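Researcher: Predict the fold of alpha-L-fucosidase.
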Amino acid sequence: MRLLTRQKLSILSAILFSTAAYAQTDAPKPYGAIPTERQLKWHETEMYCLIHFTPTTFQNKEWGYGDAAPSLFNPTKFNALQIVSAARSGGFKGVIFVTKHHDGFALWPTQTAAYNISESPWKNGKGNLVREFQQAAKQEGMKFGIYCSPWDRNNPEYGTPAYLTIYQNQLKELYSNYGELFMSWHDGANGGDGYYGGKNEKRKVDQSCYYDWMNTWAITRKLQPNASIFSDIGPDVRWVGNEKGISPETSWSTITIKGNDGKPAMPGFMDDANLGSGTRGGKQWIPFEGDVSLRPGWFYHADQDGQVKTVAELFSIYCKSVGHGGALDLGLSPTTEGLLHPKDVSTLAAFGKLLKQVFNYNLAKEAEISVSNVRNNQKQSFGTANLTDASRYSYWATDDDVHQANVQLDFKKPANFSIIQLRENIKLGQRIDSAGIDIFKNNQWQELAKATSIGSNRIIRLSQTQTAQKIRIRIYAPVAIALSEIGLYLEPEIKSAGTKGTANTYPKTNWKATSPAATGLALKNAADNNESTVFETRTSNYIDLDFSRPLVFSAVGYLPAQDGITAGAIEKYELLSSEDGKNWKTIASGEFSNIKANPILQRISLAKKITTRYLRLLAKQTVPAAGEKGSENNLLRIAEIEVYSK
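Model: Structure tokens for alpha-L-fucosidase follow.
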């Protein structure tokens, strides 16, 4: 009897093995570019945070110049665990720490440069912020990644071959001493004004070759082979092309990237026209990351405490980043104390709670699911059970010659839903061109929604809750379909009210805008309380405001154009005041860092309050228009100017 049982078990095992082997050999052939194992792990991560905390925080700036004294950096209540646990409560699975930003201040005791955390008073020069975040991530079960800026506004060697050796040695230190990394994060920061060891000058580099990216990225591949490399163009993960965190409605994980002027594509030096959309049938699998900060800026600014993104805003971004097949990288900004602000902490927790509430239960599990075709009629291997098993890599598949097929969900009673989620088995490539969603209403099928570029995750968010007892999904592809998941979810009502940060601003009644370059309505656009209108000129680099009476103020706000055109945005400025509109004196000057990528409201805080009737905003440098160089550029564009009483 025991022998018979063993024989039966052996026969059963052989049958199961044979069935599995047959299913594997009968699987659809991969289509086009496919992800690597490290990219698959990245897709599974979906959400992580990017933490900015340097002396720049203590200077209330977005980009440090490289001249801050190390003594500035002394976060008296620093707690990495508080920051990382807040990220975890938001549903994020990893953190990337900015170990050195453009100011050049290394937040670990590096042997490569004197300008580092050992020169600060924090922990008597014995501290190591990279270690603290790495350990906090490990304690919270979070993945850990590193960003070390290639641009260094402090280092006297920047711009020379010697600096490249310094930078590569910094990466070697970081990638050898802080455990396994899930991301090696880079950007295209390529030179400009800086302290540079006291030279206080502008240094340019050849963006196409200075950082020797191929050999620099080889450091990651050798020391951290499981880490995905992010930069503008990949090679593993690409930038979405904006700092709003969202992609276009159609966004392929495949892409063909071209360089500028016929040179090889490199970070900061490539044709970025298709960064957001990707390329259907592109040569490489390089999915996008949507990066956006929880606050308007990447570094903490107390005057932005009322501008933390709402849960509704975060969920909208989630649906247009993770829900478009990419990932969400959310910027976190510790205060000068070294903690996340309570508002940031509570918002993250509420966002995480909402995600659990929305995606806790898949209503599609309650439906009887039927399909118009099953691959070789192998229902056990490629059937409908795979569509609701929460596995990314089990899937329903069609025969090779079936490129259009339907999935129908029949419920015993009408189901209420507002979100449809679709996934492909991306191990076989991005196969599906488009999908249409229908509901059966008034005895006929009616189209409810449609989508393209399904990929690893496609969230179709409806404008209102729908009720249906029958739902049909029409799938179109150039090859056999391999759909891994169907989800139906109902999102609760979310408060969408947000803040614009216009508190304590003077009303613009009776203001007059003047400029030698323009007359009429265009000038009014800079002070009409309408963000969608723009003052634009090519023949003057300044605009004057007459308040009609003296105002007492401590800060001025400049909002670049919000129409998606970054050309003409002010990069370097001078602010002047006058009592009579004829004699002017400078009251502030500086730069609006990162304005090209993040064209948000810029606040100029004055050293002290002033009283004046006339104000001049002078653009010393603006973002060039496409095809123009800085020396040729004279475009100036302004959406709004604000004046703050406090």
